[in-house]
């Protein structure tokens, strides 16, 4: 009875934890436009790609969709590179880039299949979003859009309702814990207006009937290299979120947007999030842009529960051992008719287990604690002594 | 409803309704012409804009300067040394230069016969293959040895050579670049473009031994004047009134004006105040040129093949040097290089009235249609009249027919003779057509005067020779115009000696 009670406790704790913590981070980065003059859209996505990689999300957990290859476009004055700034300090294409969906693979169908994981057996793991109910996902999209749609490659478009339904299906399939949906396109805010699934924070670059503008052009490449909204997101991420230990919150990120910078009204939607704006704004930026780094340092209650459990387990094992030994000894005694109780040199593995498996006992735990305390005390004494001697030597 | 219909039918029989068409027709002309004169106003014309996203004009730094100027001077010497030599000698002199860039070159012979003269020559061209492109598309840089005014293109040819040498250094071309050097500005480009599209007559024009991809655009340089220049004249009229896509003109204007600070003029309006008078004059000049349909430069031959092209001609005394023109060409080529598909976004039918103002076909067409409508109105009126009893002239004296009598008294139209006359006249127009196409150049003007006189003389004689029904050729007004437009030679459009329509509106005074 006591045993089952002990097992129930950690399970309960784990259940409460699941609501608050995520255990993996994924990013879905989608550019939806091709052609040379849309260079900036690819640069947008690649800059976000670079940022999430910098903050620790591995390539295996980033789904990157690039419909065109700017680096190898003959019009590119700097072959093999993509830059998102006219200073050309950072080559976004670099030597380590993993594009999961490229060219004409970037379609609405593939995007929705990716989100909802409705893919065939032949789909490689690198092209799948293998998330669970404790995964945080960053979904970043950029391209040419309009009121409640985003154009994919001049051929088709995804509607706000399609997107909302895809997210809902993800929620029903327990495919995410929380989502940060970020979109940089004209009239971007209309794209998230139809979402209705829980635990989504959504942000977009511009309101209905507003265009999303490019930030600046590189006059040697000859095209605009980045959009304003992405540029200022990137600026925040590069200057404020320098590493995964950053405590900057989504609230800080959203507050950094202003009309003066972006030239359009960036929007944020909190109402789907559990706890509303307050909770959403307290989420760390790294909860979505960085890889999960949750090390449970403190967790006293949890660890005692585990230790108690282990203790009881080892007690049972010890008892079982004893019982087995006794049984064996009794059998031996019966056969040889001679009183030999202690440690029979039997060839059985049970006997060998005796000296190797050291049963955990509470005394043992206490001695360990005492030993540790004594060691600390000894060190302190040594240090005190040393400083005293040094002081007196002067 | 039925009553309304009945009264409308009643109205149809009213003889007074037949008096209306001349006034209606006149009103149409009046409104049409007035409409035309309204177009240059700000309310009716529009500012130009770049419609094609891919062009991105003026977004690149241009680097054509510095040491390239020395290269230009060297080529200028080379070209000056070849001045006055024969076509073959010139090509012999220029071809090694092009081969020196590491380019493939080829030549093409052509001979045209027109108006008793032979236009023969040899084109020279070189293809710069796009280093990383797929060789499916090409853009053309044209420099004719002589411009349309028969002046030596003394700066244009060396500039084109320098530019090609400079373009060779870049690795960012997505399209091949073809440099075409022609002996003249009309026949040479025509022969080359025809042969490029395999639409040439092999007995007169040689085929091209070397080809590249689909032509996406062409720019011609006509820089015959010595020394520096002030502004750029963009010549855009094609053959038979065809025009290049407006995006190309806008891109050149944007690059020259916006990026380089070089003024742009159109239609030989060297000074343009951007006020009503200048706008109207520019527009009318454009219309006249379109109406005449003559080639206006080396670019004209490209436009019928849907290759958008313009000629850049510097003019005036200023401080812009040939390098500035070169940078304009460089910028324009970078823009054309960005194209993903043929220029198609912007207008093909437009009237430019200033470098940044235009009217599109939707705005100016109603004017032309109103003017044209008057012919139809009068033709219908005359036709109706010819079917009514009695002389058309005296409806005033004739009492209106009572309503209860035969509602529409009609007479049989005797059509055979007028139709035969019209057919005969049209058939006879083959004579002037043949004559105009085969007469030597010197005879053209006298011939034209002769035919003008003949057709004027035949006009008063036609009513007398015609049979009794008063309007002799009631349906003829629309036909001569259609036959005229179908005849290829523009000067023969006035040749068919059938009576022009406006006088026939008052047939029996």
UniProtKB/TrEMBL annotation, chain A:
Q: Where is the signal peptide?
A: 1-20
Compositionally skewed regions (Low complexity) per UniProt: 340-355
Note whether Acyltransferase occurs among the keywords. no
Pathway terms, separated by semicolons: Glycolipid biosynthesis; glycosylphosphatidylinositol-anchor biosynthesis
Q: Which UniProt keywords apply?
A: GPI-anchor biosynthesis, Signal
- Keyword Signal assigned to the entry: answer is yes
Write down the Pfam families for this protein, in alphabetical order: Peptidase_C13 (PF01650)
Q: Which InterPro entries match?
A: GPI_transamidase, Peptidase_C13
- Superkingdom assignment: Eukaryota
The segment annotated Disordered runs over 324-356
The family classification in the record reads: Belongs to the peptidase C13 family.
| PANTHER family associated with the record | GPI-ANCHOR TRANSAMIDASE (PTHR48067)
Annotated protein name in UniProt: GPI-anchor transamidase
- What species does this protein belong to? Remersonia thermophila
UniProtKB/TrEMBL annotation, chain B:
What InterPro entries does the annotation carry?
A: Gaa1
Record bears the keyword Cytoplasm: no
Q: Which Pfam families match?
A: Gaa1 (PF04114)
Annotated region (Disordered), positions in chain: 389-409, 459-509
Pro residues bias: start-end ranges: 466-477, 496-509
Coiled-coil spans are none
Superkingdom of the source?
A: Eukaryota
Which segments cross the bilayer? 20-41
Q: Which terms are listed as keywords in the entry?
A: Membrane, Transmembrane, Transmembrane helix
Residue ranges annotated as compositionally biased, kind Low complexity, are 478-495
Name by which UniProt lists this protein: Uncharacterized protein
Q: Which organism's genome codes for this protein?
A: Remersonia thermophila
């Amino acid at each position: 009875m006591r045993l089952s009670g002990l097992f129930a406790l950690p399970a309960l704790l784990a259940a409460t934890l699941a609501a608050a913590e995520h255990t993996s981070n994924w990013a879905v980065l989608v550019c939806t436009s091709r052609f040379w003059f849309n260079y900036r859209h690819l640069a947008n996505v690649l800059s976000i790609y670079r940022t999430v990689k910098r903050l620790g999300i591995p390539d295996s957990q980033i789904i990157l969709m690039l419909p065109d290859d700017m680096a190898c476009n003959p019009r590119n004055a700097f072959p093999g590179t993509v830059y998102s700034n006219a200073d050309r300090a950072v080559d976004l294409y670099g030597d380590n880039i993993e594009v999961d969906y490229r060219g004409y693979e970037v379609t609405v169908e593939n995007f929705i299949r990716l989100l909802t994981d409705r893919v065939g057996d032949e789909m490689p793991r690198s092209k799948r979003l293998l998330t669970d109910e404790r995964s945080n996902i960053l979904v970043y999209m950029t391209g040419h859009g309009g009121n409640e749609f985003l154009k994919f490659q001049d051929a088709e478009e995804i509607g706000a309702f399609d997107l909302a339904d895809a997210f809902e299906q993800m929620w029903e399939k327990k495919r995410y814990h929380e989502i940060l949906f970020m979109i940089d396109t004209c009239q971007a805010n209309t794209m998230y207006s139809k979402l209705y699934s829980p635990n989504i924070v959504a942000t977009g670059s511009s309101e209905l009937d507003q265009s999303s503008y490019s930030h600046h052009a590189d006059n040697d490449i000859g095209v605009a290299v980045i959009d304003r909204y992405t540029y200022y997101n990137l600026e925040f991420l590069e200057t404020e979120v320098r590493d995964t230990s950053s405590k900057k919150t989504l609230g800080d990120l959203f507050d950094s947007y202003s009309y003066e910078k972006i030239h359009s009204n960036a929007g944020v939607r909190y109402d789907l999030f559990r706890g509303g704006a307050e909770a959403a704004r307290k989420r760390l930026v790294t909860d979505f842009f960085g890889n999960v780094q949750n090390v449970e340092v403190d967790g006293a209650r949890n660890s005692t529960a585990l230790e108690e459990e282990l203790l009881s387990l080892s007690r049972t094992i010890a008892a079982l051992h004893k019982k087995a030994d006794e049984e064996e000894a009794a059998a031996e005694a019966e056969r040889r008719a001679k009183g030999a109780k202690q440690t029979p040199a039997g060839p059985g593995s049970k006997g060998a287990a005796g000296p190797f498996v050291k049963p955990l006992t509470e005394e043992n735990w206490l001695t360990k604690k005492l030993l540790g305390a004594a060691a600390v005390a000894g060190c302190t004494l040594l240090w005190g002594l040393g400083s005293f001697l040094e002081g007196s030597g002067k | 409803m039925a009553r309304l219909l009945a009264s409308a039918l009643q109205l149809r029989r009213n003889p007074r309704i037949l008096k209306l068409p001349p006034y209606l027709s006149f009103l149409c002309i009046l409104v049409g012409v007035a409409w035309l004169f309204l177009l240059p106003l700000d309310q009716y014309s529009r500012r130009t804009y770049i419609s094609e996203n891919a062009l991105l004009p003026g977004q690149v730094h241009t680097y054509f300067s510095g040491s390239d100027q020395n290269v230009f001077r060297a080529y200028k010497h080379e070209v000056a040394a070849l001045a006055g030599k024969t076509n073959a000698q010139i090509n012999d002199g220029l071809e090694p230069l092009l081969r020196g860039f590491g380019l493939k070159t080829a030549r093409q012979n052509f001979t045209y016969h027109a108006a008793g003269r032979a236009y023969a020559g040899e084109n020279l061209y070189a293809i710069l293959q796009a280093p990383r492109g797929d060789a499916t598309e090409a853009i053309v840089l044209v420099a004719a040895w002589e411009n349309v005014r028969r002046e030596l293109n003394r700066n244009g040819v060396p500039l084109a050579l320098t530019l090609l040498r400079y373009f060779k250094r870049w690795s960012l071309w997505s399209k091949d670049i073809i440099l075409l050097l022609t002996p003249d500005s009309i026949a040479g480009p025509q022969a080359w473009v025809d042969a490029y599209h395999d639409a040439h007559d092999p007995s007169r024009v040689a085929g091209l031994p070397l080809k590249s991809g689909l032509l996406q655009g062409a720019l011609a340089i006509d820089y015959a004047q010595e020394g520096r220049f002030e502004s750029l004249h963009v010549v855009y009229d094609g053959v038979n009134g065809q025009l290049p896509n407006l995006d190309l003109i806008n891109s050149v204007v944007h690059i020259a004006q916006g990026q380089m600070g070089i003024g742009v003029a159109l239609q030989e309006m060297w000074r343009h105040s951007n006020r009503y008078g200048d706008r109207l004059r520019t527009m009318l000049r454009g219309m006249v040129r379109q109406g005449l349909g003559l080639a206006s430069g080396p670019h004209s031959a490209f436009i019928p093949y849907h290759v958008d092209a313009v000629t850049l001609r510097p003019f005036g005394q200023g401080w812009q040097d040939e390098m500035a023109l070169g940078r304009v060409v460089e910028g324009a080529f970078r823009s054309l290089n960005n194209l993903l598909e043929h220029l198609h976004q912007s207008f093909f039918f437009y009237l430019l009235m200033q470098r940044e103002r235009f009217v599109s076909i939707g705005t100016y067409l109603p004017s032309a249609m109103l003017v044209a409508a008057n012919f139809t109105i009068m033709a219908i009126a005359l036709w109706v009249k010819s079917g009514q009893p009695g002389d058309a002239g005296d409806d005033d004296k004739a009492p209106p027919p009572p309503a209860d009598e035969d509602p529409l008294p009609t007479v049989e139209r005797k059509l055979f003779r007028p139709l035969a006359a019209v057919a005969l006249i049209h058939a006879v127009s083959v004579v002037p057509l043949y004559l105009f196409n085969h007469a030597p150049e010197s005879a053209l003007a006298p011939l034209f005067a002769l035919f003008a006189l003949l057709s004027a003389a035949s006009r008063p004689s036609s009513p007398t020779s015609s049979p009794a029904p008063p309007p002799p050729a009631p349906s003829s007004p629309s036909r001569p115009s259609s036959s005229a437009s179908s005849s290829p030679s523009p000067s023969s459009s006035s040749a068919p000696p059938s009576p022009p329509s406006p006088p026939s509106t008052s047939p029996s005074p």
